[in-house]
C-alpha cells in the first residue's frame, strides 16, 4: 500500500506538495470510522482538501487521503512570526491608509478603481457602462456602441473593477475565432490581465502535461474561447461536467462576456425556426454565471 512521504498531518493554511504540484490546505477532516479490531494501533486516515496556488491552475480544488497519497509532503511550516518589537509610526500609518482605501474601494460605488489601473486614455462615454455595472447587484449589460468606439475597453474596465472589488474571480470571454488574440492582447496590454485561449492546441498540451482527464475549463480563472469551438460536442461536454444539474447559488462562474453577441441571437418565431448551436451553447452557459 502506498504511503505518503511524510508521516505528519498538514494543518489548515500550510503549503504542501501533492502530485508534484503546490497546494494550500483548506480543510483537514479525520476519519470517523472505528479502528480495525485486527489492528488497534492503526491511526485514523485524514481527508485533505487542497486549493492550487499555481498560476495556471489558480483556485483548482483537490481532495486526497493524506496517508495513502504517494509523494505527498509538507513544503512549508506556517507559524506566527515572533514579535520582535513595534513597527515605526510611519509604517503603521501606511498600513491604516491601505486598510481605509481598500474598504472604500469595496464599499463606495462612487470610487472607481479600474480607470486608474489601466494603461489607456479613457473617453467620458466609456465610463457609462462601468458606472452602471458597479451599481448593479448582478451585472447584465448590452454594450452596443458603434464600430471603433471602444467596446473592448468598456468591457475590460468592467472586468477590472469587478476583480478589484472581489465581486468576480473567474472570467470567460467568448468571441469569434479571429478576435481571440485581439482580446488576449488587449486585456494584457491595457489592463495587465492574463487570459488563456482555450482551443484544440491547449487541450492537447494539457492532456500531455496533466493527463487525459484534465478539464481545460477549470485550469485557469480567466479564459478566452471562440463561439465555434465551444459549441462543439466535446468542449460542451467538458464544460457541462463543471455545471450543476440545476441553477445553484452562488453560481459556479462569475463573469461571461460574449463579443459579437448578434451572432448568438435566438431564431425568429417562425414555424420552422430552430436555434443554432451557438445560441444553444450560450443559453446553456449564461444561467450559471453571476454576471
Which class of secondary structure composition applies to the elements?
alpha/beta
- How many distinct beta strands? 9
The major sheet is characterized as: 5 strands, antiparallel
Task: Kindly identify the CATH topology of the largest domain.
Answer: Rossmann fold
Percent strand equals 15-25%
CATH class of the largest domain: Alpha Beta
Number of domains: 3
The total of helices stands at 8
Write the element-wise H/E pattern from the N-terminal end onward: EEEEEHHHEHEHEHHEH
Mean pLDDT: 83
Spatial shape: globular
| Cα radius of gyration in angstroms | 23 Å
Kindly state the percentage of residues in helix. Answer: 25-40%
Low-confidence stretches: 1-6
Report strand order across the widest sheet: 4-3-2-1-5
The CATH superfamily of the largest domain is known as: Tandem AAA-ATPase domain
N-C termini distance = 47 Å
For the record, the CATH architecture of the largest domain stands as 3-Layer(aba) Sandwich
Amino acid at each position: 500500500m502506498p504511503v505518503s512521504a511524510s508521516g505528519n498531518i498538514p494543518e489548515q493554511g500550510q503549503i504542501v506538495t501533492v502530485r508534484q504540484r503546490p497546494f494550500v490546505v483548506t480543510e483537514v477532516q479525520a476519519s470517523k470510522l472505528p479502528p480495525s479490531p485486527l489492528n488497534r494501533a492503526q491511526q485514523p486516515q485524514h481527508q485533505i482538501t487542497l486549493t492550487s496556488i499555481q498560476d495556471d491552475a489558480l483556485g483548482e480544488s483537490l481532495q486526497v487521503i493524506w496517508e495513502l497519497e504517494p509523494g505527498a509532503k509538507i513544503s512549508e511550516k506556517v507559524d506566527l512570526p515572533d514579535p520582535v518589537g513595534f513597527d515605526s509610526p510611519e509604517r503603521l500609518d501606511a498600513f491604516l491608509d491601505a486598510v481605509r482605501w481598500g474598504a472604500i474601494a469595496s464599499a463606495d460605488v462612487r470610487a472607481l478603481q479600474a480607470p486608474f489601473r489601466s494603461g489607456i486614455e479613457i473617453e467620458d462615454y466609456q465610463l457609462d457602462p462601468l458606472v452602471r455595472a458597479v451599481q448593479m447587484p448582478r451585472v447584465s449589460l448590452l454594450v452596443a456602441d458603434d464600430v471603433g468606439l471602444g467596446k473592448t475597453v468598456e468591457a475590460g474596465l468592467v472586468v477590472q473593477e469587478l476583480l478589484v472589488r472581489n465581486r468576480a474571480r473567474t472570467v470567460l470571454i467568448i468571441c469569434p475565432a479571429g478576435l481571440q488574440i485581439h482580446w488576449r492582447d488587449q486585456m494584457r496590454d491595457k489592463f495587465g490581465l492574463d487570459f488563456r485561449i482555450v482551443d484544440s492546441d491547449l487541450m492537447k498540451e494539457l492532456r500531455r502535461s496533466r493527463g487525459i482527464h484534465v478539464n481545460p475549463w477549470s485550469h485557469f480563472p480567466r479564459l478566452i474561447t471562440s463561439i465555434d469551438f465551444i459549441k462543439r460536442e466535446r468542449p460542451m461536454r467538458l464544460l457541462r461536467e463543471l455545471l450543476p444539474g440545476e441553477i445553484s447559488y452562488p453560481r459556479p462562474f462569475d463573469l461571461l462576456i460574449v463579443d459579437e453577441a448578434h451572432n448568438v441571437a435566438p431564431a425568429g418565431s417562425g414555424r420552422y425556426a430552430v436555434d443554432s448551436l451557438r445560441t444553444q451553447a450560450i443559453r446553456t452557459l449564461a444561467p450559471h454565471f453571476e454576471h
